[in-house]
Amino acid sequence: MCNPVRFDGKDFLEKLEGKKIMFIGDSVSLNHYESLLCLLHAAVPDARITTQTSNSTNTVTFEDHGVSISVFQTHYLVDIEQEQIGRVLKLESIKDGNTWKDMDVLVFNTWLWWYRRGPKQPWDYVQEGQSILKDMDRMVAFQKGLTTWAKWVDSDVDTSKTTVIFQGISPFHYQ
């Protein structure tokens, strides 16, 4: 029999006092961020909070505990840049990493957008090294993007002070 421990928002805030948590990814990350905020608000409805929004980041800080919870929305983790030829998905570039690396907990996810085509695809070309392609095998592109992300974690994140979590592929949630 499975008896999971009930989530205790007050205990969560006490254990993570002074910490910064960031969810980075697509709508799955946004959903997890919003769910955690709802759980914490239910546990401490009178908590003093501040909110901050800048560029692709939203942050809620629980002032009494100094716990900041942020979400950074990015579909691919790697960059999409507007160039003269159009929007280019750069499989070997993570410029937003400077926004992420000083957190205490990083929760990453990416997957659902890698197979988007047509008007829902937010890029026109894919760049790998010096090669710019109109398209490529999406599983190969995903693997290359994740390899870039893993190299970034290895080189830019101090894993002795930052916990890094990668959420696996979630079930498809759009029809």
Automatic annotation (TrEMBL):
Q: Which domain of life is it from?
A: Eukaryota
What InterPro entries does the entry give? TBL (IPR029962), TBL_C (IPR026057)
Q: Which GO terms describe its cellular component?
A: Golgi apparatus
Residues covered by the Trichome birefringence-like C-terminal domain: 6-175
- Care to name a GO molecular-function term for this sequence? O-acetyltransferase activity
Give the record's family classification.
Belongs to the PC-esterase family. TBL subfamily.
Which protein, by its recorded name, is this? Answer: Trichome birefringence-like C-terminal domain-containing protein
What taxonomic ancestry is recorded?
A: Eukaryota, Viridiplantae, Streptophyta, Embryophyta, Tracheophyta
